[in-house]
Amino acid sequence: MCAKHYWWGVKLLMCLAGGGCLHFLLNPLLHDQDHYENRDMGTQTVVLFEKSGKNMNSIITIHPYKHRGLWVFDDDSVGLLREPFVSGADVIIDRLVEAIPNAEQGFTLLFSAYAFPGYQAELEWRREDGAGNWYYSPALDAEGWLCPALLKYFEQAPKKIYVQCMPERPRVQ
Predict the structure, then answer these.
(1) What residues pair up with 134 in beta bridges, in sequence order?
(2) Chain segment 42-77, per-residue pLDDT in tens
(3) 21: exposed, middle or buried (C-beta count within 10 Å: 0-12, 13-18, 19+)?
(4) Domain extents for the chain?
(5) Using CB atoms within 10 A as the burial measure, which of 30, 44, 60, 159 is most buried?
(6) Which positions ≥6 away from 44 have C-beta within 8 Å?
């Protein structure tokens, strides 16, 4: 068996405050698959691996906040500063964070091309437009455009994106 076809690395288990556990599988050798299912009982698995030179996560985390009236986010790991959500994506965020106190000051947004426990909204790819892509949320009956920054996280625009918004958690020092 070729080395690129088997799993290796470090398996980390992080127990969450609510009693749930998260498994992280570090897999820098897997190049020809984009998803791994772990059937461990009662845990959620997040797969971290390298594909075509990009670090890829099954679940990606960003921390949007309001800046001059726009939802924006920073991600030093991919070179983004105050990257805005526009053209309906901002409206989708407004709807998803309605129950988060002070979301304008910052919140955590999880997203993935794969369904994960607790996701709030499923966004379905509709069409390409310029360098970006339009997505539709059936649950919110809303459409939003995601700019080319999406491709900093995915090699191509996924057919579906699953999203969850939650309050910021205090940083551990």
Answers:
(1) 127, 145
(2) 333 344 433 344 445 589 999 999 999 999 999 999
(3) middle
(4) 3-57, 60-167
(5) 30
(6) 20, 21, 22, 23, 116, 117
